[in-house]
UniProtKB/TrEMBL annotation:
<dbReference type="Pfam" id="PF12697">
    <property type="entry name" value="Abhydrolase_6"/>
</dbReference>
<feature type="signal peptide">
    <location>
        <begin position="1"/>
        <end position="32"/>
    </location>
</feature>
<dbReference type="GO" id="GO:0004806">
    <property type="term" value="F:triacylglycerol lipase activity"/>
</dbReference>
<feature type="domain" description="AB hydrolase-1">
    <location>
        <begin position="139"/>
        <end position="388"/>
    </location>
</feature>
<dbReference type="InterPro" id="IPR029058">
    <property type="entry name" value="AB_hydrolase_fold"/>
</dbReference>
<dbReference type="InterPro" id="IPR005152">
    <property type="entry name" value="Lipase_secreted"/>
</dbReference>
<keyword id="KW-0732">Signal</keyword>
<protein>
    <recommendedName>
        <fullName>AB hydrolase-1 domain-containing protein</fullName>
    </recommendedName>
</protein>
<dbReference type="InterPro" id="IPR000073">
    <property type="entry name" value="AB_hydrolase_1"/>
</dbReference>
<dbReference type="GO" id="GO:0016042">
    <property type="term" value="P:lipid catabolic process"/>
</dbReference>
Amino acid sequence: MLRHVLLSRFSFSSKYRFLWLFVALVASPACKNTAPEPAAAAPTAEAPVLTGSTLIGEYSAATLGSRVQGVPLAGSLVRYPIRVYRLTYHTRTPEGTETTASGAVLVPVATMTLPVLSYQHGTLAPSSEGQAPSYYATGSDVWSVVSVLASTGYVVSAPDYLGYGASKSLPHPYEQAASLASASADMLRAAHEFCQQQKVTLNQKNFLLGYSEGGYATMALHKLLEEKYATTLPVTASAPGAGAYHKSAFARYILSATQPLSFLSTYVWVLCTYDRIYALNRPLSFYYQEPYATQLQADPFAAVPSQQAQLFTPAFRQAVLNNSDAPLAATLTANDIYDWQPRAPLALFHGTADDYVPFFNSQDAYDAMQKRGATQVELHPIAGGNHFSSTTEYTLGAYAFISKY
């Protein structure tokens, strides 16, 4: 998703204005870390998780700059060469079974102490599995924009999530908070272990970024780190963008909608994930009308209509809208991650006209966190932005936010 930042079409003058700001904001973390800082201790609360590492390549500043040459001045963001590695590590499936997962770690070739940034990627359809971070595929987010970010002075930890890379034989637990958080946290632990092995000196700063499914994963990761790794992996700041944090309200929004919804195929994926992980074991005919139940049985990613009333059964709609199906309601509330109190600074970015993930997800999170007494939470509405046009302002704003810390 972040690659759209450098490829989006906006005016020539806006490109220059954006890039000058981007240079100032992105370059600043590296400048802040020129003075020696205490090295971060390796996580010791649990057994090591790192199982292997493979060097993908070392890339010069000139090479990194050439990847974003379509945008004027983008090459000026690059400061250091980077080395990119594919890591494998232990994590657990939603069912609790230990498995091997993978991700990419991007390390600036620099002698200063470095902060770590955990980057959670957005939705990848199964047909796009080769775009997962550990493949470092040409044109992917991690290959382009995230590599430029690493070259400014961040060690970037980029989990594939379960269902991609080393764990591609498993179904991806799409939009399941616990799995996205644990796979990302274990990758972050593996990245710290790897840096200790390679004698890459880290400071105590851990930043979290991600947009769309990555925004949801970032929110879940922030919550998990503060609950379980507060001393070993303290969160410095996070900036999730456009995540579906209020799952139960989102379900009601979808099932009461009268307007066309272009994202219903992804919601089918969410329902499939929750039905499996929480052992609801409902037949597809419980959720979907014909002929879609039969078509989705044959192909879970088959095309579906944009009108929810044509796709979902009246019984399923009423079960959600009336909150009359306790097991189903429990699966939705289990994935609500909007109502908790973060301790580290957190900035929510969201387009006010988002047509994939409605803005109320971030508004509800901000309101709930404020009510719980959170004092370092900010809401940054992107006026008039939809799910795709908001990525530029999200990226600029998120970098500005974390650069303060």
